[in-house]
């Protein structure tokens, strides 16, 4: 048989797992406590006849306990769903707690009012846009700052080294050294397109050939003898084509080699050659 006074004496003076003692007073952590204060009239364990309000995801229920169901722990509490309308919910509480103590009826209505107000404030706060405070990891921030400092110092050092080397190259310190890195040499070539075009034009110029004056006159005499018609042998034509092809291949190979050389060749001096003919007073001039 359940005896409320004996239960309260044990809980109050010995030990209760739901009791929370702080400076302002003693509170109860039991979910069925109607006031949240640890006293004789509000304790759900020391009262065989008890009522309270609980919230389940925005839906309020009226919980009632009676001494007739004390021997059935699984059916100890009777639950009644309350409507969303505040006035109708109060009517249902009055209907089910008609002959209960007035203190318990008043505290139940007061708990319902506080819980409805709390739900209204929660909805308003959910609709407002608030700033979300995020914690930044301290170690990661320090690591990134150190990496940025190292990258900045490395970039400044590379730029200073490059400037110093270019100044030395322009000053003529490395005249005798020809093993420059190819990537830097290509960058310099890209920066100076005019210089490259001049060298290409100079390379495309054909080299002049020297021909004796007597041979030309004999060939002209032979042509006059045969009536202006000269027949060449097929072997001579093939040899001339092979000679031209070899000259073209050698010229292309020289161009490829000169592209990889860092120092651009200086232009050759021009030489003026005069060729006198025996039959005519005219003079031929060849510029090299």
Automatic annotation (TrEMBL):
All copies of domain Ribosomal eL28/Mak16, residue ranges: 6-117
Pfam families: Mak16 (PF04874), Ribosomal_L28e (PF01778)
Keyword Cell membrane: no
Transmembrane segments: none
Record key words, sorted: Nucleus
GO cellular component: nucleolus; preribosome, large subunit precursor
Family label: Belongs to the MAK16 family.
Name of protein: Protein MAK16 homolog
Species of provenance: Cephalotus follicularis (Albany pitcher plant)
């Amino acid at each position: 048989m359940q005896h409320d006074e004996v239960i309260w004496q044990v809980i109050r003076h010995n030990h209760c797992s739901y009791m929370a003692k702080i400076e302002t007073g003693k509170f109860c952590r039991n979910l069925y406590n109607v006031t949240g204060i640890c006293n004789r009239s509000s304790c759900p364990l020391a009262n065989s006849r008890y009522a309270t309000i609980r919230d389940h995801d925005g839906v309020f229920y009226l919980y009632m306990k009676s001494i007739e169901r004390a021997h059935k722990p699984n059916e100890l509490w009777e639950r009644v769903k309350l409507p969303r309308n505040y006035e109708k919910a109060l009517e249902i509480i009055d209907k089910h707690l008609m002959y209960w103590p007035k203190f318990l009826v008043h505290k139940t209505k007061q708990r319902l009012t506080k819980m409805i107000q709390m739900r209204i404030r929660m909805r308003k706060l959910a609709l407002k846009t608030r700033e979300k405070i995020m914690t930044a990891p301290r170690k990661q921030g320090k690591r990134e700052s150190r990496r940025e400092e190292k990258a900045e110092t490395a970039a400044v050092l590379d730029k200073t080294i490059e400037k110093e080397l270019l100044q030395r190259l322009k000053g003529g310190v490395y005249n005798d050294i020809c093993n420059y890195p190819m990537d830097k040499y290509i960058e310099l070539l890209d920066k100076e397109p005019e210089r490259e075009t001049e060298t290409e034009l100079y390379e495309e110029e054909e080299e002049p050939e020297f021909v004796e004056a007597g041979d030309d006159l004999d060939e002209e005499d032979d042509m006059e003898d045969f009536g202006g018609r000269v027949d060449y042998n097929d072997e001579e034509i093939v040899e001339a084509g092979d000679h031209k092809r070899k000259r073209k291949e050698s010229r292309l190979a020289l161009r490829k080699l000169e592209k990889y050389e860092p120092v651009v060749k200086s232009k050759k001096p021009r030489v003026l050659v005069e060729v006198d003919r025996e039959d005519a007073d005219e003079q031929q001039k060849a510029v090299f």
